[in-house]
Amino acid sequence: MIGKSRNIARGRRTFLKKAAAATIGTIGFPLFIPSTALGRLGAVPPSDRIAIGCIGVGGMGMSNLNSFLGKPDAEIVAICDVDRNHREKARATIQEKSGKKGCVSYNDFRELIARDDLEAVSIATPDHWHALIAIAAAKKGLDIYCEKPVSYSIAEGRAMADAVGRYGVIFQTGSWQRSVRNFRYACELVRNGRIGKVHTVRVGLPYGLSIADQGGNQIAPVPQGFDYDLWLGPAPFVPYVPNRCHYNFRWNTDYSGGHITDWGAHHCDIAQWGMGTEHTGPVAVEGTATFPNGEEGLFNTPTSFRFLCTYNEGFTLIVADERQQPKGMGVQFEGTEGWLWIDRSGLDASNKSVLKSVIRSNEIHLMKSIDHHQNFLDCIRTRSATITPAELAHRSITVCHLGSIALRLGRKVSWDPQREQFVNDPEAQRLLSRPMRSPWSI
Amino acid sequence: MKHRVSVSLFTILIVSITLSVHALAQPSDQSILTTLLKQIASYHYGESRKPMIDLDEFIRKISNLPEERQKIINQFQEFLRSDATVDGKQFICSRLALFGSDTSVPLFVSMLTNDLTTDMALSALETMQSAKADEALLQALPSSSGRVTIGILSALSNHRVRKAIPSIRPFLQHQDQSIAAAAISAIGHIGTLVSLELLKEFSQNVKPEMREHLFDAMLITAGHLMNERMKELSHSIYTELSSGEHPLPIRSAALRGMILTDPGIASSLISATLKGKESGLHSAAVQLVRELTDIGQIREIAKTFPDLPAAGQVQLLTAFSHHRDAEVVKTVVGALGSKQAEVRTAALRTLGSNGDASVVPLLAAAATAKGFEQKEARISLVQLNAPGVEEAIVREMTRTTGAVKGELVKAVGERKIISALPLVLQSARDNSMPVRIECIKVLRSLATADQLPPIVELLVLSNNEREEQELQNAIIAIAKRIANPAVRDAAVLAEYLPLKKEVKRASFIKVLGKIGAPASLAPLRSALEEKNFLLRLAAIRALSEWPTAAAFADLWKIATATKEPTAKTLSLRGAVALIGLDANRTGDELTKIYREAMAIAPNKEEQKYLLSLIGQAQSVAAFQLASSYVKDTNLKSEAAVAAVAIGEAIAGTASSDLKAGLTQVIASSASDSVKNRAKKIFKNIERLEDHITDWEYAGPYSKKDASLFKEPFAPEGPDAAAVVWKLFKSMTDSSRLWRLEFDKVFKEDNQVVYIRTNVWSPMEQPARLELGSDEGVKAWLNSAMVHEKEASRTVSPGDDIVMVTLKQGWNVLMMKINNGGGSWGACARFRLPDGKKLDGLRISINTN
User: Fold this and answer.
1) pTM for this structure?
2) pLDDT tens track for A258-291
3) Do residue A361 and residue B382 have CB atoms under 8 angstroms apart?
4) Bigger pLDDT: A171 or B483?
5) pLDDT of res. B81
6) Residue A26 pLDDT exceeds 60
């Protein structure tokens, strides 16, 4: 799968890379697009609102839906979910918050993206659907907000980033930590050498599995109003089990990658951002993991894990569950002049004065976004790259996928980040993608 | 779906496997593998996946042993030929696909024709990514149908199997649209010259519903040809796809492709598109401007700027942000004259990204406007990054006056241009007050100790209230940045001590108080004796903000002695504000001061204020003080709120002492909210009375290679009396307040902790001790072990029930809980032997 698009990608990325260099990690301030200054200084008339269709309106889908509902320059015109309960809840929310009745709902995303009044879609399905839906949306010229982790596999991520580039659509990934001041500031401090030359980056992710009981682990009849076959989509067919689906899909490798991809999509992304390796990746990955014993018959993503990623840029990224990292969750950059740690709970450094450091006008400034969803809308209007575009999100999640592959194989793998291929490793190469259950394909 | 295996067939399989394998790495490995395969052979979804997990681990273990791998491949193939369950086969098939060899291909092909194994076989052949597997798929294509056909087409597409094109061709016109679409997509992804010819031919008779698939396939083919250095051919495809009859997304993509394959036409193509009437393509064109790197082309495109509508101008200006070029900047500067506010705003924003030193005067002038334009101009003035920008800002400061100069000073501060500080200090005496204010603000954030004396001198000279406030704030901020606290007030004291003018002295007293340097304490104490009332008040205020409790006695003395209401109020407030700074003061002492403060407070309002402070205290004494006022008609609301706040904070550690006070609150409060909070505390207390929440702990302890549960650590050893016990408070889960959460406090695995408390019994009596623990527990009552349970479990109340005898008076209960990893906790309570409530017990970590 990866082979078909590799060459296209290389040519296009070379072209884009020059442009990206102007916006990402630039000396001086890059473009910051305030939502109040986009040619719409006052109230936004309905005709000027960005029409969005929301695909997947469960947990994160509703969170995104609510965010877009709160934006005066966006309007949700349609929703889609394979679960009728989700659809009804989403419709009720839209009616309650916007006063708009009769928002059209769909069971099948293909019907939603076939509408001719859409400008953008929000995708918040389980991971194994992201690439299929995003590519279909890109072909329609729709701009895309896609939940993290952006891809189920490396090959699907590459295909998605290529399609986004081919059609020139705007793409925002739900790795929203980039739109939080502290995370940006931490990365700017690192990029500007406040802790010296960084030799190690530690990423701490949750330990164990956060299983939410949705009705048990036993095979059961498919509930009324739930299109289970469409929920499975490209994943292998297996009988319905309540705990397989909503939320818990994260802990089954048929649909996701566990905490490594679920949280790695946030923290590994910050590691890549801070180190300026957003267009590349590690050259070698190795580690160890503990997997669930499988007695409940359902979950198989690692509960405890630790893997090392070696970068040609001269540093090592150590990704591990929180119990195997000195500061638990978060991202810790370790340099010749001290360490800097960032997490949602705060920012810390070995040298406290670093935390008061001002990034001067003539230093490296990263793209600034203070509202992830608004950044998406603003970039749609200005046709600018978002703060987490598909290409960068693909590179960030690739780190996580590589870790998962190395853990699954139980040995070291070598990676060529330029070609996005494993080096002399046919077995690992086969894990770049997971064939889709027919008739689904990208 | 279930296909159970008969015992006889499976026996044959196992024998077959065993015979087919000569030897694995170790005899035990063969045994493990055989056992696992036997279990998987009867596996059905919903059952334990442990054998699969174990097999994966087994595979990982032998991954570096090629000979052993081949043997396992053989066994897996045998497994797939056996009567094992479909569910079991699906697992084994997926693993064989990952590390199998071409020898497995015929087996997978044979599985394609069985409906039960089609999906897994297709997946396996695609996963293998080998020429032999692709050949097998190609051979299977003509006789396939339905989903199998689509699956094969998808695999051939993903592997770009060039020789598959003739075999795929018949499917382009397939009546099943899904199959036709898959075929078109496959041709596009294979992406050769032959593909292109076929797609062109196909386009002559394409059905309308297949058009989008065709165009997408052509785009993908064009991309492949471009990367294979057939740019002209690729360009021609893009050109064709850019024509009007194609859907907008295809045309937008084609526009990008045309520029990728012939960058030289970028400016003319983009300009033409921007000038064109097809507004749908404008956005795509603007996006391409942002991505261009040839500045000559950007300049050409900039010429179209005046002809664009306002929305297009805004987009183009945003795209220009990435291009630093004098000609482009000229266009942006020209946009500042637009009649459209959004265009002017976008231009100001763009200049912040691509402007140079020459735009400093423009931005400074624009920053004096109002609204969005002012905001954007200010941001750009700060963001502007080009050689000579900071010099230009400083230079302009010397040339300008009034509001423009003020904006430049503001930029100096935001950009932290330290070299401009002498000029800023000089400008702090400017004729314009707004400029002076702006200068003082900059000094406040940037100035150092060296610049403090002239700034203090400004405070002496200032005769404007606003300016004086800014100077006070600046002096305080600068002084606090001085590393040595002992000298922070030196510059201020130097001016203050000889000062005669009383109003000015009051201003300095305020500054000295906020700096809070030790040397100022004596002069401020002296100021308390001033004849001038306002100076005395200023001194009280200054000491009220003192950073230590050193000024408490001075203020308390005034509060208790003076009859002047304002001085009394301020000094009382100041004193109580400082009492918390004395770390050595006990909770009871604090409450004693509060009690006296309530007594001397000049009026009810002050008592209400004091009650709000008392509500922040966390002691039983404070609770009792607050609740003693709930019957006071004027104070009952504030007293009830304070009592409830304290009750919520300490309910977990002093529960039984609060019930009387809470009863009073519930009876007398007029607020339902406060009543409900009190009732909630009361309810929790009732739950807590039974489960013991007052604990001390010792440890945690650990010892390498020892059985921690059995190991007698210090609390159960001969030196127990020397053990240091500390208060244990972590019971944070409000729904399970009975649970001691050791894992919230102690982060290491493989440890034990000891906890103890005292239980007062009014008489000698039989009782039952109900325990729960995660993991094992030992319990001692009055030094005698009464219970021992080694277990791996979660905490559940009453898991263990132990009959004990409580002696009259205080009894000591001690427990030991071990933990190997993960959650760690315990709970305990005493009941009557029949399980009913046992009244009359008191629990406390203190027995005095």
Assistant:
1) 0.74
2) 999 999 999 999 999 999 999 999 999 999 999 8
3) yes
4) A171
5) 96
6) no
B383-432 confidence digits (pLDDT tens): 998 999 999 999 999 999 999 999 999 999 999 999 999 999 999 999 99
**Chain A 250-309, residues with CB within 8 Å of chain B CB atoms:** 291-298, 300
Does the CB of B701 have a partner CB in chain A at under 8 Å?
no
Average pLDDT over residues B640-649: 89
Chain A within 8 Å of B178 (Cβ-Cβ)? yes
pLDDT of A39 higher than 80:
no
Residues of A in contact with B65 (CB under 8 A): none
Q: Give the Cβ contact number of residue B232 at 10 Å.
A: 11
The 10s digit of each residue's pLDDT in B108-134 is 999 998 999 999 999 999 999 899 999
Among the listed residues A109, A102, A101, A120, the one whose alpha carbon sits nearest the alpha carbon of residue A80: A109
Taking one residue from A and the other from B, the number of pairs with CB-CB distance under 8 angstroms is 238
User: For residue B23, with 0-12 CB atoms within 10 Å meaning exposed, 13-18 middle and 19 or more buried, which class applies?
Assistant: exposed
Residue B365's pLDDT is what? 97
Query: Cis (ω within 30 of 0) for the bond into A30?
Result: no
Q: How far is A127 from chain B (nearest CA, A)?
A: 19
Residue type at B76 in one-letter notation = F
- In this complex, is the C-beta atom of A19 within 8 Å of any C-beta atom belonging to chain B? yes
What pLDDT sits at residue B847?
65
